[in-house]
Amino acid sequence: MFEAITGFVSQSGYLGIFLLMALENIFPPIPSEMIMPLAGFIAARGELNVVGVLVSGTAGSVLGALPWYYAGKWYGLDRLKKLADRHGRWLTVSADELEHALQVFNKHGKSAVFFGRLIPAIRTLISVPAGICKMPLLPFLALSIAGSLLWIGLLTAAGFILEANYKVVQKYLDPVTKGIIGLIIAGYVYRLFTHRTQKS
Question: In what residue span(s) does the VTT domain sit (predicted)?
């Protein structure tokens, strides 16, 4: 699995990193905690430029945040909660999670966009209350870029540093990678079968 993911990133290059990070924010197939360290790992081997890795990863992350931002701006909280109640099992988002993200935004203001990009649990959803509260696009983009770049930089640096211990990393990371992907699939399947529509 380790070789499969690193092979995909090596072959697809910056475009692959961009697409994976964009998808990770819309519908997470593979978390950024796996994508960016492996991209940094590949950059350390000289196959990619580390600046290009950071730019493509950050650009993908920010692009992936925009659909949630505009969903909040155009639909509003009530309509989104109804949508989540109706289709939450497929969207992997619940009405309660949307409500929690709005509470975080209301408590911390615009800074929630920056710090929210550093927290796996709300990194994607923090874009929704920003849209609901009609936060101007340029400040939203600036804070999203800053937060995403910091998060992606840390993950990329970790992979870059670990390249020196390639054989050790491969030995231990391969089963971990399989386990994480297995948990993601199992969690999604569990959500499909246990999701309950909230009654108004």
Answer: 30-159
Interatomic CA distance for residues 107 and 124, integer angstroms: 17
CB-CB contact of 102 with 77 (8 Å)? yes
128 and 156 Cβ atoms separated by less than 8 Å: no
Q: Is residue 200 part of a domain?
A: no
Instruction: Please check whether residue 199 lies inside any domain of the structure.
Output: no
Token pair belonging to 16: 């692959």
Q: Please report the DSSP string for 128-190 in residue order.
A: HHHHHTT--HHHHHHHHHHHHHHHHHHHHHHHHHHGGGHHHHHHHHHHHHHHHHHHHHHHHHH
When divided into structural domains, the chain yields a total of 1
Q: pLDDT tens-digit profile of 79-114?
A: 877 776 665 555 556 677 777 778 878 888 788 889
Q: Which amino acid is at 158?
A: A
